[in-house]
Specification:
This protein has 430 residues and is an alpha/beta fold. Helices cover 33% and strands 20% of the residues. The protein folds into 2 domains: 247 residues, Dihydrodipicolinate Reductase, domain 2 (2-Layer Sandwich), CATH 3.30.360.10; 136 residues, NAD(P)-binding Rossmann-like Domain (Rossmann fold, 3-Layer(aba) Sandwich), CATH 3.40.50.720. It binds nicotinamide-adenine-dinucleotide (NAD). Nicotinamide-adenine-dinucleotide binds next to helix 2.
């Protein structure tokens, strides 16, 4: 827990250090020129689907169709499309995603449905010749990840997985800085996502029968995260993002995991653990500990990267702090770095003290200021997707990266279930 003074120091230290290493800079995809916007369909317009729609740069991508089995959510999806693209006709509506995939005019599909559907929908979409941006976690099982990767290969289309931290400029600069050695050798990353609540959504009054779609009732459709048929719980819903960060920083993936967890607070009929604790073993003497709990929200969520010379804390997807150790600590307190806001509202780094060391780069980067919105990476992710589709450049979060994160968190769930250390020794297929 950091007090305001420490946060200020930590923010300044971070900016100064980022400015002193070759800049990762900002993404430039918003300026990417396309002859016509990518024609997209979206499957699943619940909470996340609508976030994606509303963060879309419609110069680059337009929605021609939405699909959701639950009409109220589908209508909200249509409304979100109309909000961001008021100049075109409302998108066509489907309750069967296969019908959406039959449309020849749709070039790409976004998938924001519950975890158990990621693989079948992605594979069908790739087979139908569509590019796919599929939400995280990549799939319900490692085998399903492999099937998705194989379908991607066979299709020659883009498959991007929705770990949006890969598209967060703050993270991108932190990774660059950590890799350049500023905090020394990293032997421990501590990540957590702690909340105090039951993670339940209110079930709306509706006569809709979701049983033909594989949900026992409306409760299972709305609260799919709590049920084993549809989800793998906290590790796939939250943990995979943060394990992905550890994979990215280390350039590796875990080789084994020990874990413990259970339904320790909410014995309300849910099937998936409400408290999970994990120890991931990585190569090169790195250990990543991860917990997600639902009984205390202090510190909420962060990834804390601990090196022999200092610590980087990436908090809430919008803040970054650096604290040096020992003799480096005193030096790091002196800084002239300031944060200001651009006309467009995005934070810009002004590193007057360190600019000389970073002479070539005046680029705006996601700053360590509290003002960095966690929505910006979604926009970047979507723009990056269009860029990959149009240029053939592999996405920053490819099927291979998605699989690595999935494989780790699924192994953690096995370790929890078996009360055993589980080796993660399946060679990557993707
Ligand atoms: N990247 C992130 O940070 C982030 C954040 C939240 C959720 N997500 C991911 O997005 C996905 C959706 O999560 P959510 O929070 O939007 O859930 P949600 O329950 O709000 O939305 C899921 C939608 O899918 C629809 N659906 C279910 N089965 C369907 C089917 N067979 N065909 C068509 N539609 C169907 C539901 O009716 C619902 O509207 C999940 O994979 C989740 O992990 C990612």
């Amino acid at each position: 827990m950091l007090n305001e003074e420490n946060r200020k120091i930590g923010r300044r230290n971070f900016l100064k250090a980022v400015a002193a290493v070759p800049a990762a800079g900002a993404f430039a995809w918003s300026a990417f020129k396309v002859d016509r916007p990518l024609a997209a369909g979206i499957i699943g317009t619940g909470g996340e689907g609508r976030v994606l729609i509303e963060q879309t740069n419609t110069q680059l991508m337009r929605y021609v169709a939405v699909c959701d089995i639950f009409e109220p959510n589908r209508k909200k999806g249509v409304a979100s499309c109309q909000k961001v693209q008021p100049d075109v006709a409302p998108p066509a509506e489907y309750d069967d995603y296969r019908k959406l995939l039959e449309r020849d005019d749709i070039e790409a599909v976004l998938i924001a449905t519950p975890l158990w559907l990621h693989a079948p929908m992605t594979i069908d979409a790739l087979k139908a010749g569509k590019h796919v941006l599929c939400e995280k976690t990549m799939a319900y099982s490692v085998q399903a990840c492999d099937e998705m990767a194989a379908a991607q290969k066979a299709s020659g289309k883009i498959l991007q997985i929705g770990h949006q931290r890969r598209y967060n400029e703050l993270y991108r600069n932190a990774v660059q800085m950590i890799r350049s050695g500023v905090i020394g050798d990293v032997h421990h990353i501590r990540a957590l996502w702690h909340r105090n609540g039951d993670w339940r959504r209110a079930v709306p009054q509706s006569s809709f029968d979701p049983t033909p779609h594989g949900y026992a009732d409306l409760e299972h459709l709305v609260n799919w995260r709590l049920y084993a048929k549809h989800s793998q719980g906290l590790m796939t819903e939250l943990g995979s993002h943060q394990v992905d960060v550890a994979n990215w920083i280390s350039g590796a993936e875990p080789t084994a995991v020990m874990a413990s967890g259970g339904i320790q607070r909410y014995k309300d009929g849910r099937e998936l653990n409400d408290h999970v604790y994990n120890i991931f073993e990585y190569p090169n003497g790195l250990t990543v500990t991860y917990s997600s709990i639902q009984s205390n929200a202090l510190d909420n969520y962060y990834e804390q990267v601990m090196g022999t010379r200092g610590t980087v804390v990436l908090a809430g997807e919008g803040e970054a702090f650096l604290f040096m150790e020992g003799k480096d600590a005193a030096a790091s307190k002196a800084t002239e770095v300031a944060v200001s806001t651009t006309a467009a509202g995005g934070p810009v780094m002004e590193a007057s003290a360190s600019r000389a060391a970073d002479a070539g780069s005046g680029a705006a980067v996601g700053s360590a200021s509290a003002g960095y919105s966690s929505l910006i990476p979604y926009r970047n992710e979507l723009e990056g997707f269009v860029y990959s589709v149009r240029t053939g450049e592999p996405p920053l979060c490819s099927a291979a990266e998605g699989r690595r994160a999935a494989r780790a968190v699924l192994a953690a769930n096995q370790a929890m279930e078996r009360h055993q250390r589980v080796a993660i020794d399946t060679p990557p297929q993707a």
